[in-house]
Design brief:
single chain, alpha+beta, Elongation Factor Tu (Ef-tu), domain 3, four-stranded antiparallel β-sheet, elongated
């Protein structure tokens, strides 16, 4: 008999065995089989119970947590790349920073040859001084012409008085006809001289206007040219527009560069963000302001970042691609689109664990709060970006202009 068909009991009883022993052996076999069946049933019940508990637990977890979360690993760190470009053309004399260097806002990174701009500045300074002195002389002439007009008025009054006295003696032997004619001619000459003085005074007053030396148009034009020359000289020192790290340096010493040429890029890593590309089927419950938890492949799951949804893009990635898809064809396959969602990170966490532009991130958005909006209704403070070199401080050149005005007597005449 094969081994698998043998009875469980290892003892063998012969045909001549007592009936009581044969009955006892059958009872033991049945008891063993019942125990095995009960054990299998108990194990099946336990397994079914555990499976049911796990299913209920997972269902509760999904209902309470998972259905309020949207996740993606198609997310990358993004940041501003601030190009360093010259405002004037020139020859590079020095480069003060290289790739990976940390620079501060306003720090000089590239220097251009400034000989030509310095000479232009000196010429503009001399022209300004000359304009101030000419305007000062013009105003002095105005005062002198006013005095000349008063003198001509006095001369006319004297001539008229002489004519009046001689007119009373006309027809007598006390005055001759010729002398009376000379008195009349003197009045006419004095009147003409007064008219000429008044016209000259009007012409000078028209040139002067109601301005002082400092506000005269000629002086203001010269001051504007002086400021332009000062700015051109200042622009030979190209400064960092913001604090950050240097990347993509392409400028070399001795190179002649044109205005607007990209020299290097400044990346402010303390203000980076994450662009998370979610499928269009995941966007229904995503709102601005919802909390986000992120992990970076660089640090792994041990380091978590926290942020919030800052905004949703106005179009999908394919819509803004260089060659947008054209689906108006006979052969068309639907492709699930992805929309970039911008996530603002916590600056304190970025300072502790800095990120680099382009790194991969895993994103999880908690969508419980549905009070936010899907589209922004205005600009936010984080959108403001100001270059440290965009508006140069003109206080030094203004102080120099005021000093030149005082040194050349601009405050003496109004």
């Amino acid at each position: 008999m094969p081994a698998w068909r043998r009875p469980i009991c290892t003892r063998r009883w012969g045909a001549d065995s007592p009936p009581a022993l044969r009955h006892k052996d059958s009872t033991n076999i049945m008891d063993a089989q019942l125990k095995k069946a009960k054990g299998r049933k108990r194990n099946l019940i336990i397994a079914s119970t555990l499976f049911a508990i796990a299913a209920i637990g997972y269902g509760a977890w999904w209902a309470l947590v998972l259905r309020h979360q949207e996740t993606t690993d198609d997310a990358y760190v993004a940041g501003h790349l601030m190009q360093l470009t010259p405002e004037i053309s020139g020859t590079v004399t020095a480069v003060r920073a290289d790739d990976t260097d940390r620079v501060s806002a306003g720090q000089t990174l590239v220097e251009l040859d400034g000989n030509d701009t310095r000479l232009a500045f000196e010429r503009a300074r001399s022209d300004f001084i000359d304009a101030v002195r000419q305007t000062r002389q013009l105003m002095d002439n105005g005062q002198r012409e006013a005095a000349q007009t008063a003198l001509r008025e006095a001369e006319l009054a004297k001539a008229k008085s002489d004519l009046a006295r001689r007119s009373t003696l006309a027809g007598t032997d006390a005055i001759s006809t010729e002398e009376l004619a000379h008195a009349k001619d003197a009045v006419a000459a004095a009147s003409a001289a007064l008219d000429a003085a008044r016209e000259q005074r009007k012409a000078t007053a028209a040139l002067i206007g109601g301005d002082s030396v400092a506000t005269h148009p000629a002086v203001l034009r010269a001051a504007a040219r002086l400021k332009e020359a000062w700015l051109a000289n200042e622009r030979t020192r190209i400064k960092a527009p913001a604090s950050g790290f240097v990347s993509r340096r392409s400028v070399q010493a001795g190179q002649h560069i044109a205005a607007g040429s990209p020299l290097m890029a400044i990346v402010p890593l303390e203000s980076v963000w994450v662009d998370a590309n979610f499928k269009e089927v995941q966007l229904a419950h995503i709102r601005i302001g919802q909390p986000v938890t992120l992990t970076a492949d660089q640090y792994g799951s041990k380091v978590s970042y926290h942020g919030k949804v800052a905004g949703l893009s106005a179009g999908t990635g394919s819509a803004f691609s260089l060659l947008p898809a054209q689906n108006a064809t006979g052969n068309w396959i639907k492709v699930v689109q992805r929309l970039p969602v911008r996530i603002e990170l916590d600056p304190a966490e970025l300072k502790t664990h800095p990120l680099r532009v382009g790194l991969s991130m895993a994103v999880e958005i908690d969508t419980r709060d549905q009070n936010g909006k899907t589209l922004a209704d205005g600009t936010s403070p984080r959108s403001a970006q100001v270059s440290a070199t965009a508006n140069r401080d003109l206080a030094p050149v203004d102080a120099m202009i005021a000093k030149l005005l005082a040194e050349n007597g601009a405050g003496k005449a109004q």
